[in-house]
Automatic annotation (TrEMBL), chains A, B, C, D:
Protein name: HD domain-containing protein
Species of the source: Paenibacillus rhizovicinus
GO molecular function terms attached to this record: dGTPase activity
Pfam hit, one: HD
Bilayer-spanning residue ranges: none
Phylogenetic lineage: Bacteria, Bacillati, Bacillota, Bacilli, Bacillales
Domain of life the protein comes from: Bacteria
Cross-referenced Gene3D superfamilies: Hypothetical protein af1432
Amino acid sequence: MADGQSKERLPEEKVFKDPVHKYIYVQDQLIWDLINTREFQRLRRIRQLGTSYLTFHGAEHSRFSHSLGVYEITRKIISQFERSGYAGWPKEEKLVALCASLLHDIGHGPFSHSIEDVFDAHHESWTCRILLEDTEINQVLRQFDPSYPERVAAVICKTYHEPIVVSLVSSQMDADRMDYLLRDAYFTGVNYGTFDLERILRVLRPHQGRIVVKESGMHAVEDYLMSRYQMYWQVYFHPVTRSSEIILRQIFRRAKELHGGGYTFKWMMSPLEKLISGTIDIRDYLALDEALVQTAFSAWANEADAVLSDLCHRFLDRRLYKYITMDQPDEKLWQEIRNQFSAIGLHPEYHLEIDFPYDMPYHVYRPGSTKRADKEEKPPILLLSGEDHLSEISRRSDIVRSITGIHQGKYHLYYPEEPLLESAHRLPANIRELFALM
Amino acid sequence: MADGQSKERLPEEKVFKDPVHKYIYVQDQLIWDLINTREFQRLRRIRQLGTSYLTFHGAEHSRFSHSLGVYEITRKIISQFERSGYAGWPKEEKLVALCASLLHDIGHGPFSHSIEDVFDAHHESWTCRILLEDTEINQVLRQFDPSYPERVAAVICKTYHEPIVVSLVSSQMDADRMDYLLRDAYFTGVNYGTFDLERILRVLRPHQGRIVVKESGMHAVEDYLMSRYQMYWQVYFHPVTRSSEIILRQIFRRAKELHGGGYTFKWMMSPLEKLISGTIDIRDYLALDEALVQTAFSAWANEADAVLSDLCHRFLDRRLYKYITMDQPDEKLWQEIRNQFSAIGLHPEYHLEIDFPYDMPYHVYRPGSTKRADKEEKPPILLLSGEDHLSEISRRSDIVRSITGIHQGKYHLYYPEEPLLESAHRLPANIRELFALM
Amino acid sequence: MADGQSKERLPEEKVFKDPVHKYIYVQDQLIWDLINTREFQRLRRIRQLGTSYLTFHGAEHSRFSHSLGVYEITRKIISQFERSGYAGWPKEEKLVALCASLLHDIGHGPFSHSIEDVFDAHHESWTCRILLEDTEINQVLRQFDPSYPERVAAVICKTYHEPIVVSLVSSQMDADRMDYLLRDAYFTGVNYGTFDLERILRVLRPHQGRIVVKESGMHAVEDYLMSRYQMYWQVYFHPVTRSSEIILRQIFRRAKELHGGGYTFKWMMSPLEKLISGTIDIRDYLALDEALVQTAFSAWANEADAVLSDLCHRFLDRRLYKYITMDQPDEKLWQEIRNQFSAIGLHPEYHLEIDFPYDMPYHVYRPGSTKRADKEEKPPILLLSGEDHLSEISRRSDIVRSITGIHQGKYHLYYPEEPLLESAHRLPANIRELFALM
Amino acid sequence: MADGQSKERLPEEKVFKDPVHKYIYVQDQLIWDLINTREFQRLRRIRQLGTSYLTFHGAEHSRFSHSLGVYEITRKIISQFERSGYAGWPKEEKLVALCASLLHDIGHGPFSHSIEDVFDAHHESWTCRILLEDTEINQVLRQFDPSYPERVAAVICKTYHEPIVVSLVSSQMDADRMDYLLRDAYFTGVNYGTFDLERILRVLRPHQGRIVVKESGMHAVEDYLMSRYQMYWQVYFHPVTRSSEIILRQIFRRAKELHGGGYTFKWMMSPLEKLISGTIDIRDYLALDEALVQTAFSAWANEADAVLSDLCHRFLDRRLYKYITMDQPDEKLWQEIRNQFSAIGLHPEYHLEIDFPYDMPYHVYRPGSTKRADKEEKPPILLLSGEDHLSEISRRSDIVRSITGIHQGKYHLYYPEEPLLESAHRLPANIRELFALM
């Protein structure tokens, strides 16, 4: 049985050199063994930021390095709790928490958000299956303690009996977010994502099943939330990145459509075919990585289907869709554009995409309810004054209130530039003007 | 005709956010067009440091970002020369120099060093072919000025009539090395590769067809060379990286051997088959990228050939060879090991590799001759005192002399651990001791 | 006559190593000569952040280094304007602008804010006098161009005929503020003050006599203003710094009071005596520096007057006043405290100070009027969309609006702890409770 | 009795924000009380790098911040030893070691090296007196444990019975040096002094009464020693800094000479007079700080003695001596220069100083003897291979050997430029040529 002290502590601490945290320290045999499983190593072949490297060329870092980073921050938080002897932290949960933080992204596939959209997969459910089914990770966890696969899965699925462990891995200011802000800022090279991690770690307190923030740390949290705000608008919602995600999604949609229509691909590989046909199992899922997806695109660039071939070329050679911006929705205009696009031989379903960042799976900060009715709702950030007075941060901070639920989003209409330029003379004047075609 | 001033200057300067140089500035339409060719975009799919990401997980950056970095440093050097009005710099060569710095690595394929070793390809000759044959890059250069493809190729091949342009792109302290030291240090996270780039740029002087260093910059150059020394020993020659390169090379060797012997691969793709069979042309070469190689390894992990399958699994799951270290060569002992390995059923040609860093295509610093008899020989670093007294730096600096031609290298014997452990009882005592098997 | 091109350009560019900007570049003989005047060198003996080093021990940097930094940012902005060939920038004003940026703080004395409060001096008027009266600076400027002393003074006093030059040196996002945020963040070690200077420089545009910001730079400006907000609350308004400033001011007040009452100081120096008696001239003003003030405090710690001696000991040995915090003003309570303090032998006028940060000479951001009725009012930050649509930033940005005119300030009551502890038993219960005395 | 666990641990950890170590953590009441003594606070008024701020304007940091930094590194080393449970570290010595590291520089006065040269004071002996005589520090230590003043003094004087504690505070790679290299690099802004502190802390091992380095850390130590080498030549031995130190020393020499000759100073303060007359006691010594010295110089700039007045003006206004460089000593020539200087009315004893960096109290690295015959000799750096094989690093590392005992030093002749220029026509041709006077 595991009691928070590893049954086997490594004879000598291992370290990974990490650009964000300087070093990542591994002290437990269990953690070391998990890192060395094939499922965890596979994360090296999946980029943390999907297609963002097409906008920020430095953003080539993998989910492998992010997962180690989340683990390291969790380790530091717990170590701070233990050193300070805080009553609210259940010491025996340490290893479960470390495993959950290390493995919380294990279910991610290549370009997850796009694939999930098109094929209705969910990385969260794959995470649970990888923990619970026949994998090296499951084997390592089970050999350590038969209850570990379920316990770790419960933490990640937010059903664990100790809510504070869940809170560590999943809340508005969890180890996941703290690592990705710092890491994405480092690799993109923007300097918006930097906040004072060391100070934040010092003001966290375990309190009645939650991680809360000592009142004196309010400004540090404001700074963290502002970093998040800036990263969302400068990096995550960048319109060029959105354009590349749209291309990607359309490649998958087209492949699915063709496959459904009985099209014979000149090139195909089994895991991909199963993904497309909706029959993928865990073994094939684990064989999916970005290398396979990019190889498919290289091959499909030579397919007979013109739409698929064009989209694949666009992705590989970074000939992305251009965009125009609109402040307000205008369904009638949009329908007219679709009609005109059809009239000049374009496929509106592939050649026009209307995008609104607000629909994306991010929100800068929502105070949320503390009841977590919505499974997507992350618990809010609470400030602790005195012994036990809690207040939600947006009630205390003007800054936080100002970014809470902010929508600065505009509508972007994405489209391929060249065919429009070629057929500009056949379009009515209002459409030409909108797309700045003379 | 191009005269150093771009025929077309971009109406507004473009920038790339870059973690190493903060921003990369593009002012010329020609440079912008080159970056947007498919051959240049392909560099996004080739890692700068090959397999080093298996040792330093941050080292996932691509040759695309390095190429931009080399361009940016070259741009800064030239801009400093122009601002200071130095007589020795031929202003009309600016654009040729910028093109050469941007494109100097365009011929690299995936995991170049290993592939070059096994298939006797050379990225330098591919670079020339990409510049001179039917590619988008050739087209962009030719449209700018019909002489540009040849001129840029001549700079990269070191046959250009203005030696100072060659010196900028290829010397002991060229833009290439300055960028990769800084960049590799940034992405691995080690802090050895940092030197004062801004100061070095300020002490460079064009002088009689060479770039030399003002005497007062000697300590800055020492610091640069020490960074190089540290990076070589800490990063580039890291034994774990060497182990992964060995696995990679053996995969290619095995595939070539199998192919030569008429083996039918369950999975193959055309560019790879042509590489293996020695019939690759430029179109297929440009289709080779790391995605394709990794996809091949994933597929070959399921091949019938046990050696190939094992090697591919090892690479993908990072189950690398272990190593032992020896100070001196000992051919007799090595032969005995090979014999014993055979005796227990291993394939010495795949299961034992003896490695000596000195053989690798790097050297920390060699004063070299100034005559460049050897095409690999890079011109040495010269200090300029007064108006025109030049001296080679290792004659002036004790530090540089101490690292010149240094060999600290040891012999490493790489081998798979598990089969040895299993058959340990069948090995003689001296071999068991050597490999620390009980 | 000066025409923006220095009459004398330095034969070789000079540099200062600077931790914030890496290097500070001096290209003009005039700038070099100004830096070497005794009045400018004197800024080395005046700390940029006054007493903040008692809170943040790294904050020991001088106004000398800040002044060089303001010069360097101004130089970079102008150089960007010139390189881009923007129409709105009057090239012939370059040197005047550089002089004004270098010299804008030349009138500061030691611990300016406190001394200005007590002695009704103003560093701005001293700046003008140093430029216009008999000083080395005046001589250097006059020799360069007889009109320069007046022109430079006019820029600093905001009466110059070219408003854009004024705007560069004094606005809501001027070179002064940009340097001090970065510099103060660097030396204190907090990482709140860092924003992307290089990006901000790229989005500035001269436009109709003002420096405005290209619309696409809005997020960068938000980040800059958030840095300012954080620096104000974390550093500039830090209650411990306020406490040390209060002590300092009280020392001066006490010395003035004693002097006015005919007290004979055991130790006095002429420039200080003239300051206290209100008869200081420029020669004595320039002899005032922090060394002299601290030496005075060391000497006065041995004066017979108990109040003065105690205050000086407190300052030197960092035995600062404690404070309690109140959300709302309460004049009646405060009066009661004063009475009770008197009753136990304290001097309320020295032993109690009620402080409210809002009164301080800072405000995070005020949109201001564009008419500059109020001389203290700094012109607001304007965003430029398209060719000439301007909008004040707080109308466009929710973030900026949320920090505009924010008062989070609380009232702090500062007092010496020890005498209160000693006499706690003689105080009524409500006062004891307020000061947490049992 | 103290047992390594503080009798009083602070109820809540205190932190100082520090630019170099991010935060400095104080956990013991004793350390907190020592920091708050007036003798320790006095270190805020003494610059760490003396006159270097006249060369590197950022170098304005105090011995206060350095002392906290040495404490913090020591705390981290011990904490690493304790966490790893190394046998060789005597746990009960923790607090003594922390006190010694915090207080090792407590005896420094203003511009120590110059004052020590002229007045034959030694900061080491003042350190002992401050620990052992009637001071607040002595009182705090004694109240904690009556043996502490002597124990802490013994560590600093290297006579302590546990040599490993001495080794922590004073060796070739002690906490003192590690902090000052990082700190001086940070504040000057040069990037030579940065090495991987975290890695070095991880490879230190207590071993038979010494701190040694695990063999695998050799490259990290090389990097540390190279930083030291670069800092010495780029910062500590900078000829402009030397020039300012020479002026400073000559001011003191002149004042001493005048005082000895019965000269009546218009301005004098008691601690300074006692210093000059050799009768200074501890109370006056503690009243000496840089403020007082600079105030004296300001006052003495108006003294009747022309030599003293000129030197003081030079120091305050940074009108330093120029220098010429010679590779070899040449006593005969130097004597001729002195004669010629006299002939044109200069005072060779004040107007010519021949300086050789090798004489300065630094050496990059000397392997030293392990016997420490010479009290100044610092124990060398030893590498630990296996369980207990030790080797001195310069025997293993070519790099270290190359910088061991290196002298690149040249002779510098410092002199005031103006009087030489004025009388150039009266000097013989060889002297004119030497000083480049046409």
